[in-house]
Write a structure and sequence with these properties.
Length: 181
Amino acid sequence: MHTIASVKQRPAARSGIALYRLYLLSLLIAGMIQLSTIGFAPYLHLDEFMIIDLGRIVMNPGTDWSIAWLPGSDQPVFFWFYLGSVAQELVFRLAGEYGPRIFALAGALLAARVMLTYLLLRGTRRIPAAVLSLVFLLDPLFVQSYSMGRLDSWTLACGLFSCVLLRQAKLRPQSLRRPSF
């Protein structure tokens, strides 16, 4: 048996599902456009080569050549603390020359989706939250970053996800929180 309250909530729930489908379609279209240009736009940038080469050096420290070479000590530059370069080198080895760009694009799509979650948790209405999330995805500086195969998108996705976790912890009822010591 349906109550008046449940009948009134159904159209809102349906419109929320329709909006979410439209949002996912928008992400899919933006991703497909980016994928269609991944082979020729943008040109291969020095950052892309450098990130992958630094990862190659970490995975193969005995190498005798590198883009980043220290002439004084006659060895490649070795950044063991830069894990992003190792991730991009692994993706390069697994997926080929476009792998790092595709991986960065996946991070950008995830970051936009996490941004939507964060905005909704902050109390932003659904349509403005979806639009702001898409604006975030299509911001020219962000597009330049992930289209060059940089890991900034994954960093932003992780940072935003931590904001989501903090917001959820704040919104959780006091009775469900663990005691702090």
